[in-house]
From TrEMBL:
GO terms for biological process: bacterial-type flagellum organization; protein secretion. The keyword Transport applies. It comes from Ignavibacterium album. It is found in: Cell membrane; Bacterial flagellum basal body. This is Flagellar biosynthetic protein FliP. InterPro entries: FliP, T3SS_IM_P. Keywords: Bacterial flagellum, Bacterial flagellum biogenesis, Bacterial flagellum protein export, Cell membrane, Cell projection, Cilium, Flagellum, Membrane, Protein transport, Transmembrane, Transmembrane helix, Transport. The lineage of its organism: Bacteria, Pseudomonadati, Ignavibacteriota, Ignavibacteria, Ignavibacteriales. NCBIfam families: fliP (TIGR01103), PRK12797.1 (NF009438). It comes from the Bacteria. PROSITE patterns: FLIP_2. The keyword Oxidoreductase does not apply.
Amino acid sequence: MFVFSSGLFAQQTQSLSFPIPKINVDVGTSQNGKDVAVTLQILLLMTILALAPSIIIMTTSYLRIIIVFHFLKSALGTQQMPPGQLLAGVALFITFFVMAPTWNKVNQDALKPLLDEKIGVEEAYNKGIEPIREFMFKHVRDEDLELFVSMANMTRPNNRNELPTYIVVPAFVLSELRTGFIIGFFLFIPFIMVDLIISSILMSMGMMMLPPMLISLPFKILLFILVDGWNLIVGSVVRSFAQ
């Protein structure tokens, strides 16, 4: 009976068989330079996709937003709330909101014409990088640009448009770090005041062994809720990019 069942199962397996796709990867010589160019374009595209997270962090509003969120978390004194992954996700979607006009312009000027084969890859890059450079120029400091121009031993350009992108990006990152730290400093002030008030009250009551941070944490959370902190902070950070 076992042999009969095995034979029946084998027949059913053969009747339900389906073709399995076969993949061939060939490495050989090419007589056409166009094939090599297409291969290099694909390699370049894969490299860009691999570096996409770093590009999003370094050339968009994400850096300032995530710095402000982490300063807020430290100022409140909460250890695990909100989780770091949640803050990163919120910062990412706020970045999408802030960068939407810039990315729409990149899509209209570079991506769509490239997909429609109206322009080449090099022209698409030149047209696509301009809106991003324009965004970075709005928020980069002249002092940071001068720093990297001097370190690169470049002659001083006549205007910003002559600066190469590899100079603009690190200067923009430094400017965003500075702005994020400035906002973080002002975030700490009201919460430090709460800590000082709670510490003074505990000392006046003779409760010196009780950690002030333990008592002040609920009051800081209450203060943050009463002033509608999330709305205030997110609105302020987003409006800072409209200047």
